[in-house]
Amino acid sequence: MKETIxxxxxxxxxxxxxxxxxxxxxxxxxxxVKGELPPGLIxxxxxxxxxxxxxxxxxxxxxxxxxxxxxxKSDAYFENGYYLDVADTLIVVLIAAxxxxxxxxxxxxxxxxxxxxxxxxxxxxxxxxxxxxxxxLTLPWNIYMGFFREHAYGLATQNFGAWFGETLLGLGLSVLxxxxxxxxxxxAVRRVGKSWWAWTGAISFVFIIFFAMIAPVFISPMFxxxxxLPAGELRESLLSMARASEIPADxxxxxxxxxxxxxxxxxxxxxxxxxxxxxxxxxxxRTSPEEIRAVMGHEMGHYVLNxxxxxxxxxxxxxxxxxxxxxxxxxxxLKHYGKRWDVSDRGDPAGLPLAMALLTIFMTVMTPxxxxxxxxxxxEADAFGLAVAGEPHGFATxxxxxxxxxxxxxxxxxxxxxxxxxxxxARVYRSMTWLKENQxxxxxxxxxxxxx
Length: 452
Description:
By secondary structure, this protein is mainly alpha-helical. The chain has 18 helices and four strands.
């Protein structure tokens, strides 16, 4: 037993050292590259509308806005992420093995039972302890991933204290909300027997909807300050787009993401009366009004096309099949190792590390499917945003800004496997295709006149 524990611990340590050193070897030289595109709307000469307008040439002109160093930097950041995702899964599996073979998981359950023999309460206590222990065991990896790596690419702005404070806040929320949710799931597992996986899928659907509803109002403001967008032409144009799209929002909010990141972003979040249109201050302060309207048109597309609910349904279906996989794999492993781990059945919370490891493996294998589901929705929102905003150059410029940390031009299989959004090249090409078919659109004509 002691030898097993030493092997697992050594494997965790070596995996962390190998992953960070190997990936950092590729990342460190890029830190000196300045990846920012110049502020303001960018319209390459060949991308201006006219009788000789060519979609392929216009797209290439936009893609070539990235120099070789910038492209190498974004490629390295994105491609290294493929290996980091696998490393994440391996770490979860190795930690599960450590907790089970060492008997720590069993002892955590016994500690929880000493507080109360009521299943719902000792399960809640066990899950809370599990979250804290996982946080501690993965802390070195998460510091590298969430702090050092992001700073190496110029994507983070927080000092370590601020970053760690928010990380602790995330842990607190996980314990506060996650422990009771998992206790409810375990109660269902004990009550319904072999059909637990289907019931757990249904319970997951309800809680995903619930958290999507409360997040904009109660959770997001814990991490960022939200203020109304100042009155002016931009605010009125965005509200006009929202009214035309029948989005029930009477305000536009700006949140202070620049204290955490250099990335641009926006969203239309919430459900059932908590809908909120938001953009971050990076998008507001570092891009043009045309880009902002294009990005917000895309985000409004998610709302109008009901992507939130649709994606929750799809994700829940995938999760449910994941629970079915856990059902068979868990029971099979328990026959061989249940006595050694002192895990009695699938309703025993001491088996949670195994269940989490199996579900993580399943979701990693399902990455191409999950990415394809999301990427399709993003492509639909792209098309909607182009139509409602009428800003093809704004959308193309925004896509190029995102490509300073997303590989601009992946292979076809690479995009299917690893991209949860259309590639930058695909988005620029879609924008230029829309422009070719709508050169006489009054919005396009006005934009060209303003950018002569």
